[in-house]
Task: structure prediction
Amino acid sequence: MKKNTYKSKRFLIPILSLVLISIILIASITSYISINIFKTHMQEEINRIKKEYTQEHKKRVYRNVKFVNSSIEFNISKIEEKLKASLKEKIETALHIATFTYNTYKGSHNKEELKEKIANALSAIKFYDNRGYYFMYDNKTKIIFGHPMKKFIGKDMTNFKDAKGRNLMETDAKILEKNKIGFNKIYFTKPKDENRQFPKITCITIFKPLNIVLGIGEYLDVIENQTKKHVLERFSQDNFNNGDKYIVILDLHDINGGEEFATVLLNSNKKDLIGKKVSDKVVDIKGNRFRKDFLDLIKEKGEGFTQYWYKKPSTNEPALKVSYVYLQKDWNWIILSGFYYEDLEEQISIMKKSILTHTNNTINKTLIWVSILCLIAIFTAIYLSFKIDNTIKEYTNKIIEHEDNKRKQQNLLIQQSKMAAMGEMLANIAHQWRQPLSAISTAATGVKLQKEINCLTDKDFDSALTSINSSAQYLSHTIDDFRNFFNPNNSKVQEFNITKTFNKILSILSAQFIAKKIEIIKNIENIKLSSIENELMQVLINILNNSRDVLEKIEDQKRLIFIDSYKNQKNLIIEIKDNAKGISEEIIDRIFEPYFTTKHKSQGTGIGLYMSKSIIEKHLNGTITVTNTTYTYENTKYKGAKFTIEIPIEKV
Result:
């Protein structure tokens, strides 16, 4: 056989032509590309700086606002912490007084008298410049029997709600369920101002002998005002307000806006506004009601960024500004901090000059380097073209040789598979023909014997001929089945019925299965598909013959093979399992490898399952897998190997 070899195409001319054309194009368009690249780069750099500037300053103003809020929350927590400690100390004093009074008079007074004694003892005590007082109510009836405001004595407080709509008795009860001494934050009137409710922290406990609640509280507004003053003084200092960077704080009166919706508490940019009320009707130079915009923002989200035009302190001219707005809910303050985009434009102008100079220098250097590289490329291309040509020849010859060897190996496997299939078929022919040949021989011998002894009747003669003819027809039918199996015309894609296919297969194999006492249990759906019937039959016969060979060794149980086929969406599923106790887990992953077999060399070549997998995957566009399975049949538990084939029903 003549060996294929690579014939040199002499790539030198096309390679050189390509290189020269490339060099000319590069030289022609390099300048144009370079200018556009650097223009694009400059614009990208400007956009990057804009983005970084915006993000950096947004982070700064966000941190400023959050820092103010954190400072407020810290002061509030410290106020409450100290106040709670003081109130707890005083409620413990009230418990001692109640315990002493109860122990002193419990033998001579009833419960109501004891409660009155305790109320009188505690009502005489005042503190916090007479703002603080004790109050008492029955834990069961929620009726107040001790309070400096007379209108509450004897009042059932079960359904009493404060200015925020909270039921005070319910919140007290929940707190006392979990704490011996608890704290509640409420709104309540003052003895000297009974028309308004003020924020207040109460400390409560239960005096268990009488099941009464003792409480004490302090109003937060006085302490809050002192703390607010301290916070405003701190953030009005220069280190928090520098030129165009400053903090604004508004005391919010009405979140829905209006002519006097807030009072300015801090604004170093316009100190003349401090203490004055502001309106949300004011517009910037673009006609936007910017204060209404940030009111809408905090109503919806509580905080966020807003953009508007406002006079810049350093120029006293309107400039575009971005501010972060936050609603501090404890004090109902609006906190703002922002920056002006005008500062960004100055940075961009400086940057443009720098980039332009750098761009011109880079373009000049690029042109010089392109010229040098072009010369180098020409000489390199000439050298490499010869090397490439020789390398291509060397590797192409190796590839051709490898493909030839691979093709020979594949042909050898196919030939071996065909020979193995032929051997199987011859064995099946021997089994299929044994019975009808025996019947023909018996009938012919009987006729001859009867003829010799002159006792052959027409009826016996006709019966013998009928028997011989029937057996001959069976043999003819068997020959057709084998011929169809090896017919090349059946190796094309055509429509067929899987039920009929299995009937053909079992017709070929039935004699051997019957001889070896193997029972076939079928559950085959009547499905039509377009595929290569002959190749599918080869795979199925190979799997069934493998099961037959393994079952032949089983002596202690029935020999069973189950065949199931059904439709799953657009695919046909075929499952074949036996009860031959399965395949060793150590080798189950290798059974589709070529030349791998567990049979004796005289019984198997090890290519049957390899070719089956190749046929299913490459010719039928499907998959084949094998697993060990355990199942129950007729109340007996079995284990065996299960082969699953999945192929498309329609032609792919």
